[in-house]
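Holo model, magnesium ion. Inputs:
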Amino acid sequence: MSLYRAELRRLVLRRLTRWATVLGLAVLATVAIGVFLSNQKIDDAARAKAEVAAEEHWQQQVRQTEEFRAECEQAAARGDQSDRFPPDCSQISPPPRDVYSPDQFLSSTFDFRASFGGTLIAVAAILALVGFVVGSSFVGAEWNTGGMMTMLLWRPKRVTVLLTKLAALLTGLLALAVTTTMLWFGSFWLIATTRGTTEGMTAGAWQSFALTGLRGVTLALVAAVLGFGLASLGRHTAMALGGAVGVMVVGQFGLGVLLSLTGAKFVEAWLLPTYVQAWMQKEVVLRDWQTCRVNPFGQCDPETLTLTWQHTSGLLAAGLVLILGGACWAMRRRDIS
Amino acid sequence: MTAVLEIEGLQKSYRSRRRGTRNALDGFDMRVEAGQVHGFLGPNGSGKTTTLRTLLGLIRPDDGRMRLLGHEVPADLSAVAGQVGAIVESPQFFPHFTARETLSLLATAGEVRSTRIDEVLELVGLRDRSRERVKTYSLGMKQRLAVASALLKEPRLLILDEPANGLDPGGIREMRALMRNLSETGTTVLLSSHILAEVQLICDSVTIISLGRRVAFGPVEKVLAAHSAGTVRVRLETVADLPEASEALTRAGFRVTREPDHLLLSGVEEAAMVTRLLAGQGLYVSELVWIDGDLESVFLDLTATAPAPGQSRQVDQSAKPAAVGQRSTGGWGA
Ligand SMILES: Nc1ncnc2c1ncn2[C@@H]1O[C@H](COP(=O)(O)OP(=O)(O)OP(=O)(O)O)[C@@H](O)[C@H]1O
Ligand SMILES: [Mg+2]
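Output:
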């Protein structure tokens, strides 16, 4: 317990923790402010104004068309054969009225029920990034600077030391993630009430958002554990960060190119971001458009592959077991110098 | 006397695929009695740090038994960790924390009362600089912080690997006084150092290691006596007689070194044998003195690491004693 308290304090004292937190929150605040500024509330007056604007635009268009036809007819009467005008001036006709719907003249508005779910992905992504960086440096810096050795002179139980450190990290991150998510819900509710609509928020819709938020927090925690485990295995923060970048760039990008060259079906099913998406949106449906090439005419019915959040949870669990298990095993076995 | 630290037959080899196996420790033995200041000496790369790391559970040994304060380690290390303060080869601290934060984190983790932090900061002379980041400290200040962290637990056994590294002369003297005080209040101190004059001043006993094996151990005077014993300086009434005397003594089996105005003999058991032999040849001794070696010359002799003119000695080029068991039993020391 005392060790846990010490580690929690160490986590909070670290500059990187503070910076990463501030930076992550700043990015999220910017997004929220941007959404707030780019949306407007739509009331009856605004709707009436949009109707007027649509009508005006249509009228203007009609006038311009009439002028153009008049010019065309004059030119035809003069026997002018220039290709400025079509050969038959009666072809020039004004657009129908319904092309100008008032919706186009409404400023955008924030529909909580329709759009909030998507913004939760941004929160999860930022929190996961913060979790990974803080997690890997929390233990990585300890290995680099020899702090781990000093700690082991005080507490010789190696795996306990490692896991206590991890527990402190997860506590800190959980507190951050939960607060951030709550603030996010709050600020977007405010945005929706002042600059949009909160219509249609049934209990079911709330529950669905709450679960998405929860999955986002879980994703952040998993990212932190992975960063922590990788940095502990490599005994270096840079190792974890480099590993992550390596996997993303070389592994994912290279794999994507390779698979599409070999013409594999469902290339995205091999890419990690697809699984993150499936995790946050509950499912992702992949379509194999190659089957359509056989029959370029008529209705195309591509083969589909549905990835659900359960698939992702299996993947995350396997990653956790492998990396954290590896880190603990290495911690037990290796010589520390 | 009770032993605070016992090591028997400790083995540790580092394996590397390219360079094969290196025996850092090769059947090493050691024993430190309670309440003593014990010096741990050996050339670079002889295995001192490896021994201390193994003892503290940072490295797993290949073979051998170790006991700390009566507990088998590494099995029982948790039971004694709270009573063993250690610094191992200039420990590093997190550079962005202040000394006080560093110590306070350790104190929390080790459940040490927080007033102890001020006590140790005072002891190592960092009181007024304790709120500065470790990054800004000088080498000696970091070393002082390391000593402070080892003292934090009020240890029964204090293990210091080259604590004088980077300390100023005043600091070295303070460290000496500190160790004296600690040992007077019952703390056992194990001190690894290359400053032999220092070791000779403060240590009650020593262990000398070379290439992973013990080459000498015991109380300082005994080690000195045992290994400088038998060296005498002989002067004759007339310097011209020196060559003749040298020849006679060599024939009698003494190792003789000729100096311009005297002879140095080693392997002497009784001074009377020398005088009698020379008198028999009609050579009269005007002075015969036993010479006490200092720790440095004994160390250089035992580890065979004395610099030879015109030759640079490489590390690992030192005396390798015979393996345990084959060693002749004409022993000294404890
Ligand atoms: N991690 C390691 N991998 C391989 N060999 C090692 C490792 N650590 C130490 N050694 C080797 O073990 C031997 C003993 O090293 P050790 O650090 O114990 O020496 P030391 O007596 O402390 O020397 P010094 O006086 O220079 O501090 C050396 O030959 C060293 O090269
Ligand atoms: Mg060393």
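The radius of gyration of chain A is 29 Å. The interface with chain B takes residues 2-3, 5-7, 9-10, 13-15, 141-142, 145-147, 149-157, 333, 335-337 of chain A (CB under 8 Å).
Archived with the compound record.
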